[in-house]
Amino acid sequence: MFASRDHLDGRAGRVEVAFTDRHGGVSPSPYDSLDLGGARADRRDVGENFALLARELRVTGLVTMRQRHGNVVAFIGDDAADDVVPGAGPECDALVTDRPDTALCVRAGDCVPIALADAHQGVVAVAHAGRRGVVAGIIDATVTAMRGHGATSVTAWVGPHICAGCYEVPAALRSEVAVVAPAAFGCTTRGTPAVDIGAAVVAQLQAAGAQVVDRALCTLESPDLFSYRRDAARSGRTAGIVVLRRSGDG
Ligand SMILES: [Zn+2]
Fold first, then answer.
1. How far is the CA of 188 from the centre of ligand 1 (A)?
2. Structural domain contains residue 172
3. How many CA atoms lie within 13 A of 87 on its CB side?
4. What is the pLDDT of residues 67-113, one digit of tens each?
5. What φ, ψ does residue 182 adopt, rounded to 5°?
6. What is the Å distance from ligand 1's center to 217 Cα?
7. C-alpha of residue 34 to centroid of ligand 1, in Å
8. Residue 2 C-alpha to ligand 1 middle, in angstroms?
9. For FRET with 181, which of 96, 164, 171, 197 sits at 20 to 30 Å CA-CA?
10. If you measure from the C-alpha of residue 239 to the centroid of ligand 1, how many angstroms do you get, rounded to a whole number?
C-alpha cells in the first residue's frame, strides 16, 4: 500500500507522511489495485480504496482536491468537512491546514506529490506540482500560505514522479520551462530534451526555505507505481498524504 512512510515529531504533535504505491486495493486491471484517481470517482472501487487507505492511516477521511495544474492554495479550516468525497473538494493544487487529525491528500500519476509540515507550529500541507504547476509557482504559493498560518520551519517530502530520464519533451517546451525553473532543464537517458520536474521542485522548495526529504522513485520505471506517460488512460493514480496528530495521540 505504501511506497514510503515518514513521521516528524514537534511541539504541536506528530506529523505523519505517506506516499502510496499501486498495491493493496480492490481495483481490477488495468487500475490494479490501489487506484486513488479522481477522474473516475464514480467507480465504486476508488471509493473502497479510499476507505481502505483511511483505515490503514487511522483517519476518518481524507481531504482531496480537484487538481488543476495551477497555483491556487486552499486552506482547510475548522468548518470544513474532514471527509471529502474523492473527486470532490476545492479546485486547487495545494491544501493547507492547522487542524489536527485532518488527512490532506494529493493525487498524482507522474506529476510530483509533495507533503509539507512544520511540526512545531502545527501547520501541514500537500501540493501537486507538474510541469505547469512549477511554472505557475505552486511551490512558493504553498510555502507562503503555510507561513501565513504560522509556519516558520518547513520540511517537505518529495514523492514519486517521472524522472528526467523518462520525461521527453520538445526542445522548445524544455526551454520554456527552464526560463522559469532553470533546474528543470534535463536530458533523457537517450540524450533528447527532457524536463527534470523533480529537480525543479527541489530547487523551488529550497528557494522557498524548505528542508527537503527525497522520497522519489520514477513512476514510469517502477512496476509498483502508476504512470500516465506509460499507461495513459489505463493509468491509475497514487497519493501523498499528510496528517498532524495532536500531542498524546497514539
Ligand atoms: Zn524514469
1. 9
2. yes
3. 13
4. 999 999 999 998 776 665 666 789 999 999 999 999 999 999 999 99
5. -55, -35
6. 8
7. 21
8. 19
9. 96
10. 18
Domain tally, the chain: 1
Is residue 10 a part of any domain in this protein? yes
Average pLDDT, the chain: 94
Q: Catalogue the E-assigned strands of 89-221.
A: 94-97, 103-108, 112-118, 123-129, 155-158, 185-187, 193-195, 211-214
148 alpha carbon – ligand 1 mean position (Å)? 36
Measured between alpha carbons, how far is 29 from 110 in angstroms, rounded to an integer?
19
**Cα gap 124→189, rounded to integer Å:** 36
Contact 95, 138 (CB under 8 A): no
Q: Cα–Cα distance between 33 and 201 in angstroms, integer?
A: 28
pLDDT at 85: 61
Residue 232 CA, ligand 1 centroid: distance in Å: 16
Distance 164 CA to ligand 1 centre (A): 6
Distance, in Å, from the CA atom of 201 to the CA atom of 139, rounded to the nearest integer, reads 7
Domain of 105?
2-245
User: Cα(102) to centroid of ligand 1, in Å?
Assistant: 33
CATH number at residue 12: 3.60.140.10
Is 151 part of any domain? Answer: yes
| Cα 162 to ligand 1 centre (Å) | 5
Ligand 1 centroid distance, CA of 152 (Å): 34
Answer whether residue 250 is part of any domain: no
Give the whole-angstrom CA distance, residue 162 versus residue 109: 8
227 alpha carbon – ligand 1 mean position (Å): 10
Q: In the numeric block, which cell numbers belong to residue 77?
A: 479550516
